[in-house]
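B., you asked whether I could sanity-check this one before it goes into the benchmark set. Here's the sequence:
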Amino acid sequence: MAKVKETAQVISQERLAEGVYSMWIHSPAIASQAVPGQFISLYCQDGSRLLPRPISLCEIDQEGGRLRIVYRIAGKGTEEFSAYAAGSPVEILGPLGNGFPLEEAEGKRVFLIGGGIGIPPMLETAKALKGEKTMVLGYRDSQMFLKEEFEAVGQVFAATEDGSFGTKGNVLDAIREQGLKGDVIFACGPTPMLRALKAWAAEENMECWLSLEERMACGIGACLACVCQSKDVDSHSHVHNKRICKEGPVFRAEEVEL
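And here's what the prediction gave me:
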């Protein structure tokens, strides 16, 4: 899979919730190769911000040559992106990282679990996954971005931290409250959520794949800024580390320490 660095063009952008934006980008070269779970790096136009911002792919339209990202404003870089409009140029690099093992999960009952800004990459994963799937989404409050789009794909259960919709609490609270059962977990979200899912999967003897979120620099595995602790010795750094941008962001739960 060849990485492409190019100046692409914004097709459209809209605000989905407080501080959360959806952007469609025209990039046939990257869209033709990308798979669910991968990400792209976006470069700022402001020269004072040298490092790109890694953002997961929410949707991949290979026929139309389009990519969709859904992101939350977290600093000056993403704030800059939120001001882009249709026709704006955007320098991107991708596709980066690996994806969820969709073929391995076929024929199994799969939980697709997203928390916060870890929800967007689960949408393309849900659309591409064949077979029985249950989506469990965790939000802060009733601003449940993308929920209706997930509902078009399959059954959705939601948890909100403030109890304004669905189960009050987190995604595990929703699973337990609803008595949901599955064989495999695909998840993306904040580390505490992933840590809890890893422990629960071990208790239930479930296969579990986690997409880790981490601040990255190069996005191609050279700088070692985004390493996580791993069970095995990394062939690149020769220590118990894995590069999230290169070997990940998707790992089997037993591979990584959270």
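One thing to flag: Helices lie at 28-31, 76-81, 102-105, 120-128, 147-151, 171-178, 191-204. Otherwise nothing jumped out at me.
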